[in-house]
Structure formats: structure tokens, C-alpha cells
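Re: the 139-residue chain
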Amino acid sequence: MHVAVVSSSNARAIAEELAASLGWRHIPAESRRFPDTEGYVRMPEEHREAIRTEPVVVVSNTFPDAGIVETLLLLDLIRDLRAGRMENLRNIGPQAMDDVGSGVILAIPYYGYARQDKRFKPGEPISAKAIGRLLAAHC
């Protein structure tokens, strides 16, 4: 079975180890920061077909806070690729393809905000639950 192990910038080493130990393919997502420090994530063209045709394990940490955003962006781009939503402003490549289904598993080696798994005082959020809901909505 071919499985693509996709890593965010904050979990590359552990994703490489996971892929190597299971005989799977490691695919690092391209990520960088814009001058205003906003995150940017992209799947290089040479890996897009694997993302569309193989089960995908996304390995990403949610700490520090920027890891949450990078994880959400990565999950969203994978969901779009698998759904065949390829439209882009430059009209590069096919704009739409068949939907191949979800097929995405998220592995979080370090789950930031897990400490607040209960409401200790009135008026507090259950942070672990809130972050979990956000991530689950993209898998």
C-alpha cells in the first residue's frame, strides 16, 4: 500500500522517521512567511498526484500558535486537492478534477492547548476541544 506522509514545517523530522519506518513516501509541504509574518503553505506540483491518489497522513504540531494555522492551511489545501478544486488566478494547469474523497489522517505529535481539557473556572473555554473541532472540520 502506498501512503503519503505529508509534513508541516514544524514536524518534518518526525514525519521523515515515520515514513521511513513504515516504507511510505514522505512529502514535505512548502511553507514560508510573508513579510508581515503571515504563513504560506503550498504543495509542490510533483507531489499533487500522490496527494490525490494515495491515503494521506498529515504530521503537524499545534505548538506554537502558528502551528495551528499552518496545520489548518495544510489540511485545507489537501482537502481542495483531493476534491479536485484546482482553480487559480493564473489559470495554471487543470482548474477542476474528479473528487477522490477525503482519505486524510491527522497525526499531531505535540497537541498544543491540550492542558485546558476541562473548564476549571467559569468563563473559560475548553481550549483542547475548540482546537480539536477546528482540526476535525478539515479532515
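The longest strand covers residues 4-7.
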